[in-house]
Amino acid sequence: MASKESTLKGFLSSTTVVILILNTRGFCSTFNVNCSKADQEGLLTALGPVFDLKAIRPVVNQTTCSNITVYFTLYGILGVDEKSQVLITYIWLHYWWMIEFARWNPVQCGLETITLPKKNFWLPDIVISEFMEENKAPSVPYLHLYSDGRVQEGLPLRVVSSCNLDIYTFPFDIQNCSMTFNSYIYDATEINIILGRDPKIITASSKNVMTTLGEWELLDITAQKPMNDVSDLYIDRLVFYIRVRRRATMYVVTLLLPSCFLITVDLFSFLLPPQSTDRSSFKMTVILGYTVFLLIMSDLLPITGNTIPLINVFFSLCLVLMVGSLLETIFITYLLNNASDFSPVPQWVQAVFLNFLGCLVCMPRRNKKPKDSGTTNTFDVKPPKTGGPVEEDEALQELKSLSHILHTLRLQAEQQTKETQSSEEWIQVGFIIDRLLFGLYIVFISVAFITIIVVWVNSSNQ
């Protein structure tokens, strides 16, 4: 018996809804709501049947597509998380749609618009596809209903959206993040999303109301309707593109300038004499200071991304040059102290370093060759014209012995001269290497400064 009563009650309630829908379709050409009194209470009472239909899409004919007008105002850019690849923004979102059976005569009802709780109406299930976290902004429980059936809903949103970040030009990077608005359940035959305001007006109003003056600056907001599939079951979408630029002044002051100062200090260390032990200790101190600087500033560098930031390459090259200059100083010190023990300079080293690179760095080869007398004997021994045979033989023997001693001394002197020349050539090779690294430092610092200025100017002009 109880089941029959419940079935009968369900049938009656369903019949009531169907009859109400049929009645509202009959009044669609004029007004669907008739007010008994021209005040807010009378209008609220007249809207009772509309509240009962909040479970269905607010159209008289269910084959009719509901147009949802969407636009927003960007109130603040809260941050960009490079590690998680997300953009955090705060927006004011506005929806407009029509309730076809909620129209009334403002003269008869006395009101042009009324503010009512959202729970009494059907709400479109518009979501942001890139949403990564739950909305933590305060909820707004009311909306506006106009006499022609238009509904306006406004609500704040704290949007944590995914964004494909390109940090190659950090800290002069410009990010272009998207927000895709689409229905979660209804397809394009039921809900059509329309842009409610010109993107230029959205950009201008967002810049006017934006209160956050942090790391990021809003450049522009654009909108686009993507190409839909050929099937009838596609979801209609509206995509907003938010282009933001990082304010690079802080990073230039805290990252680039100290790094350039340290590499410049290491550059001027080449003016110290290579044979001095202060030069190597000075370079080691600069490397230690640069390493500590990188450790302290590591939190300011982006952690992850699709590509390695150019600034990380710059820091790595600076460290490589500093370590290379220290190794070169150690090598030159070793040459200066042990060049006399080396074998003669090979021919290819003479051709590459002394002849070619030496002229390239304005250090021509110093040719110091011993003069050749052209004779194998320095002294011409002549026998004396006077004296006996015995005395003549003794004098001749003494002269020959003296000539042999002098010839041996000459050979030793020539060998010493050759060793000295070989030592000087090795030392000159070391000086050429030192000059080459000094020139490489100058070229690297010049290119780095020019690149930083060009990228900064291009980022500022966009």
**Helix-strand pattern, N to C?**
HHHEEHEEEEEEHEEHHHHH
Number of helices: 10
At the fourth level of CATH, the homologous superfamily of the largest domain is Neurotransmitter-gated ion-channel ligand-binding domain
Binned, the helix content reads: 40-55%
Task: Tell me the strand order in the biggest sheet.
Answer: 3-5-6-2-1-8
The CATH topology annotation of the largest domain reads as Acetylcholine Binding Protein, Chain: A
Radius of gyration equals 45 Å
What's the pLDDT, averaged over the residues? Answer: 80
* Total domain count: 2
Q: CATH architecture of the largest domain, please? A: Distorted Sandwich
Category from helices, strands and their pairing: alpha+beta
Tell me the strand percentage band. 15-25%
The largest sheet, given as strand count, sense and whether it forms a barrel, is: 6 strands, mixed
Distance between the termini: 77 Å
User: What would you call the shape?
Assistant: rod-shaped
Uncertain segments are 1-31, 369-381
Q: What is the β-strand count?
A: 10
Q: Mind telling me the CATH class of the largest domain?
A: Mainly Beta
